[in-house]
Design a protein that fits this description.
Elements: H1 9-23, H2 29-51, E1 58-59, E2 65-70, E3 82-91, E4 96-99, H3 100-103, E5 107-110, H4 118-124, E6 132-137, E7 157-166
GO molecular function, one term: peptidyl-prolyl cis-trans isomerase activity
Family: Belongs to the FKBP-type PPIase family.
Catalytic activity: [protein]-peptidylproline (omega=180) = [protein]-peptidylproline (omega=0)
């Protein structure tokens, strides 16, 4: 024999509504854009590396590409260090958009304090005093989807950096 249970109508409706929410998980539009942009940036960077026959790079888990140019002779940069450096900022097509050499004034910032783009905070931690390196920075580690007045949103950037001093 089967037993029958009486379930109030609101319990069934509550259960069905709960199931519909669990089954309809949609991706946040911002997260979808961010994921798609990261994939596009990485493909663009890989094409650039291949076209220029660049093989001496390290890709970090965040998508930053680090290309050592000249080994440092000093202390390794640590989070919280005050770093003085010269840099040249370029687009992947080689067009320069900014340079501390042009002003003659090196940039000084505290590593990890959010004073610079995320790619610089992360890249500086890969470097030592007196080191020269190139960072290829995907847009999510640079100026994101919105960009600046001179750098369009979603732009991959290249920085030639020289650490002059670490305190």
């Amino acid at each position: 024999m089967f037993r029958t249970f009486k379930i109030p109508g609101f319990t069934i409706i509550y259960f069905l509504v709960l199931l519909s929410f669990l089954g309809c998980k949609s991706e946040d539009p911002y997260e979808k854009y961010n994921r798609q942009q990261r994939e596009a940036d990485d493909l663009y960077i890989q094409e650039y590396l291949t076209a220029n026959k660049i093989t001496n790079f390290t890709k970090t888990t965040t998508g930053l590409y680090y290309l050592p140019q000249q080994a440092g002779t000093g202390v390794k940069v640590q989070k919280g260090d005050l770093v003085k450096m010269h840099y040249i900022g370029k687009f992947l097509n080689g067009q320069k958009f900014e340079s501390s050499y042009d002003t003659g004034i090196p940039l000084t910032f505290t590593v990890g304090a959010g004073q610079v783009i995320k790619g610089w905070d992360e890249g500086a931690l890969l470097m030592s005093n007196q080191e020269k390196a190139t960072l290829i920075v995907p847009s999510h580690l640079a100026y994101g989807q919105y960009g600046t007045s001179t750098i369009p949103g979603g732009t991959v950037l290249v920085f030639d950096m020289t650490i002059l001093e670490v305190k």
